[in-house]
Sequence to fold (488 residues):
Amino acid sequence: MDNHECTLDKIISLCKRRGFVYQSSEIYGGQAGAWDYGPLGVEFKRNIQNAWWKYMTQMHDDVVGLDGAIFTHHTTWEASGHVGHFSDPMVDCTECNARHRADKLIEDWCRSNDFNPEKPVDTMSHEEMKAFIVDHINCPVCGSKNRKYTDVREFNLMFKTYQGAVANDSSLIYLRPETCQTIFLDFKNIVQSNRMKVPFGVAQYGKAFRNELVFKNFIFRTCEFEQMEMEYFCKPGTEDETFDYWRKERWAFYLKYGIPEKQLKWHHHDKLAHYAKDAYDITYNFPIGFEEIEGIHSRTDWDLSQHMKFSKKDMQYMDQEDGNKKYIPYVVETSAGLNRNFLMFLCEAYEEQNVGTDGKDDYRTVLHLDPRLAPITVAVLPLMKKDGLAEKAKEIQNMLKEDFVTDFDVSGSVGKRYRRQDEVGTPFCVTIDYETIQEKLEDGSNNLNYGTVTLRFRDSMEQVRVPLYDLCARIHKEIAAYKPYVKN
Ligand code: GAP
Fold:
């Protein structure tokens, strides 16, 4: 491997060094599988979420939003099937007591040994998984070659707690393992309050919690994560065309924000979840291989029917355009992981680029992020602190703040400052120099309508001189016209 390629370790190191992501509770030795998003991480994450929200709601007239509570009545999860079915197969090494996810253990082993199992792992029975593990896999924790394992059994992934002073069945609460259930619980409210007509969708993002047995690969699989989900309610019989439509739309979203098509792949589910009629994942080619970033599921009328059964409330929709016929709508779901999107956009944007001249190597680390996603849009850099340049630069920054997330940097050479901004993906740098303050009004002042600045572009490293009065508009224009960077 070329040592300038993107690896997960390089991404983790950049994230920590530049304030994207830190290990949670680091001063106490770290909380396994939990991560904090730092000053740049929180901006970047919010930009991805906003891009998704805009794409799903603003760009689709028939999709509205919801922000449901994390706490819901515990019957929600009995009705949805999560109490009974939401589990992963686990197996313990009886020598060191390490607990493993059986399916992941097999998948990882097959990948690192370039081995093709006779049948896909997600279609193996518990007995088949155990047999495979005993035949092939030494415990990755203690390394024992004896391969002594318990039987493979199911482990429910929901976190449980109790609300209030008394812990009993009625105060039982589950932390939601997916965000979408409140959309089903509020289906009737949304239809009535907003006069929604089937077909329509409801989008929601927020935290979800799963008691994952294995967390590795940084923020890829964690116990606490964020989902961006949309449930689209359609007339029974139209679910297949609706499913195809949303598969295309979600694929297009990733292309729009700069993921090249060759880096994405569909994965069709051979074994379906308890609620699904059909399901595909969009997978991305991470440095660890192709892995899921989003699931698109045809969920039938499972959820609404189940909530109707458990709550005894009528969840049917009355279709006025079809002679007041009553039915339970079918549902197509798009369910994306925000944290996995975060990791994907970082990996895709990362480049160690040789920008040396005259045959000399000179590498810069740069994130070619779409400007709409970049944590900082414009960095303002006065050439010098003195001679009024820093003051003028502050005035310009204040003007830009109204429209963009900005940064201000006065330390070190301008070249070094450009490199620092490249490393965090800042698409535009504005440099204030003596020419900027040269032009003064007759009364001796120089206001924001006078003078010019250097506008420097991250991807091409080109610089142009821009009059101050046009700076904001020019940056807006550049963002609108941005074409995803194509790496060599
Ligand atoms: N409502 C459907 C649902 O939750 P899912 O395939 O289990 O479907 C959807 O999850 C997305 O949520 C996944 O594609 C992934 O991006 C994200 N996700 C799931 N579990 C995760 C975890 N433990 N850590 C980070 N992201 C996770």
In short: The longest helix spans residues 39-58. DSSP finds 15 helices and 23 strands in the chain.
